[in-house]
Amino acid sequence: MTDLPTIGIVGLGTMGLGIAQVFAQAGFAVIATDAYPPARTSARDRLADALQARVDAGKLTTDARDATLSRLTVTEELSALAPCGIVIEAIVERLEPKQTLFAALEAVLSADAILATNTSSLPIQAIAQGLRRPDRVLALHFFNPPTAMKLVELAPHATTAPDAIARAQAWTEAAGKTVIRCPDRPGFIVNRCARPYYGEALALLAEGRRAGEIDAAMTAAGYRLGPFALIDLVGADINLAATDGMRAAMGGHPRYHSFDPLKVQVASGNLGRKTGRGFVFPDPPVAPPPDADAIALRIEATLINEAHWLLSEGGATAEGIDTAMRLGLNFPRGPFEALARHGRPAVLAELARLRDAAPDWLKPRYDLAPGLAAQT
What we know:
The chain is 49% helix and 9% strand. The mean pLDDT is 96.
């Protein structure tokens, strides 16, 4: 393990500490810091508690727990990260603090060290702008909780050096993660391609269907959680913010329209599990409706179309998109696998039907992505 680099972590909240745990458990030395003193002083105890829970569950030995803890160094000074081959930031999701941090890190790291952001929403090109070595910057987007979720989205920007991409991928895979490369585009793969799962369900709700029966249709189609159960899990307010953010980033395109039922739900304060009531929580599941297959086809057709739009923009593969959607959301299949399952004629017919039925301002929501109609 002597060829493994030292990993730097900046930000010791839930995400940052989880990423530190991932690498420390895999045998990497980790140096971590946070601008907030209580986050630094509590980090080791929080990690010890997390590891002890795994020991108590029989998933980790006490020796492995102690070895993992021994690999974590928490420091007050950013300069202590100088030995790191890569530093991953998990700080506030705003552009200026990330740019400021990376500029400060450039002053202490070696010239070939990699600067990785865990952003899920900011352009990597913008984060790298103004740095002396922008070619060392990329995204490593871990999913929450990073200790359990296998997927990491790796997003370089246009001038990220190939060796930085290759090393970041190899080291993250050595920590046990499945790394999928994706373009520096809004939402990367998962957060973008997931929008229709919620959006088309909300369109159905706006048309008078019940949230419970829509969820039941999707669980009958093999999905672990229906779209409304997922919204309830994350929070309706978070879902609305993500949809609005994606719509703004994509020029207001109606594929990312925020349907009124979501806005009404947020205004009501019934945000899901965190408030005690949501679209379907805490009601018991209902039986799938007679047209469950049609509901599943409608939602999957829009997922398929969005995946083709992303594919047409370059920087991703069909296989990568499918893998990312399965691992990032626990979907039973990715959109290209769903296309094979339904058959292209059924998907094209469904998208045409939806476009014909939509009001004029919403019709572009169902426009076919390049490559989808042309495939034979």
